């Protein structure tokens, strides 16, 4: 099966291709267990290489026939990357409340994408100009927070929203905020993401058929 190369990452220690392949296998296995009506098997640190023991934020996105079928993740975590990806893959497939659960028949058209996030970096947010000047279109993800209201866009959102102003406007709307009434306590953080993507339908089916049926 052909896989797309790892996207350029601005993290200091990006995941290499071999470790990225292992991360995809972990996601495949979790999805396969869910198709067999089982909970994911979460690998502990002792069963992970050093790169996957790092507590990095991650998201797992599933698409079926090119349409979103689940997206679950965390911006920050204390959990090892390999463990959180196993958990997020299962949740994206079977417990994203916005979308239908993945079915066995969907696996013929399934694409799995894992986004590995850098650490959050604060940027100036005293005014719209401050925020827009600090944001790198096409590169940065953005997290905003004011009081109990917050929202995040992954860098992949730039594929649908090319304008920095519209990117921020839509994110404010997602958070229930308005740029016309700038919150005095607004905080903003940027991050980058390394993406690993694969059409994994045959491997998910293989995992589902070969994995033992004991819990």
Properties at a glance:
215 residues; alpha+beta; Glycoprotein, Type 4 Pilin; Dna Ligase, domain 1; 4-stranded antiparallel β-sheet; 5 helices; globular; disordered N terminus
The number of distinct helices, counting runs of at least 4 residues, comes to 5
Proportion of helical residues: 25-40%
**Radius of gyration based on Cα positions:** 18 Å
The strand count comes to 8
In total, the number of domains comes to: 2
Q: On the 0-100 scale, what is the average pLDDT?
A: 87
- Secondary-structure element order, as H and E? HEEHEEHEEHEEH
Proportion of residues in extended strands: 15-25%
CATH topology of the largest domain: Glycoprotein, Type 4 Pilin
- Estimated structural class: alpha+beta
Strand order of the largest sheet: 2-1-3-8
The end-to-end span amounts to 30 Å
Architecture of the largest domain in CATH? 2-Layer Sandwich
Main sheet attributes: strand count, strand direction, barrel closure = 4 strands, antiparallel
The top level CATH class name of the largest domain? Alpha Beta
General form: globular
- The stretches of 5 or more residues where confidence is low (pLDDT under 50) are 1-12
CATH superfamily of the largest domain: Hypothetical protein ph0010, domain 1
């Amino acid at each position: 099966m052909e896989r797309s190369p790892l996207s350029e990452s601005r993290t200091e220690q990006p995941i290499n291709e071999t470790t990225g392949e292992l991360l995809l296998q972990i996601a495949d296995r979790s999805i396969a267990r869910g198709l067999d009506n089982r909970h994911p098997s979460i690998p502990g640190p002792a069963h992970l290489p050093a790169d996957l023991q790092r507590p990095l934020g991650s998201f797992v996105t599933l698409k079926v026939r090119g349409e979103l079928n689940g997206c679950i993740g965390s911006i920050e975590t204390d959990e090892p990357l390999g463990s959180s990806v196993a958990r997020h893959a299962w949740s994206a497939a079977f417990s994203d409340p916005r979308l239908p659960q993945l079915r066995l028949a969907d696996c013929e058209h399934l694409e799995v994408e894992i986004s590995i996030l850098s650490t959050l970096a604060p940027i100036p947010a005293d005014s719209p100009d401050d925020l827009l000047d600090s944001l790198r279109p096409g590169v940065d993800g953005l997290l905003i927070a004011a009081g109990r209201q917050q929202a995040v866009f992954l860098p992949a959102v730039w594929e649908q929203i090319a304008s920095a102003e519209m990117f921020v406007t839509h994110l404010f709307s997602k958070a229930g905020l308005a740029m016309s009434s700038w919150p005095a306590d607004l905080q903003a953080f940027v991050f980058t993401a390394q993406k690993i993507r694969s059409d994994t339908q045959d491997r998910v089916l293989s995992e589902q058929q070969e994995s033992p049926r004991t819990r």
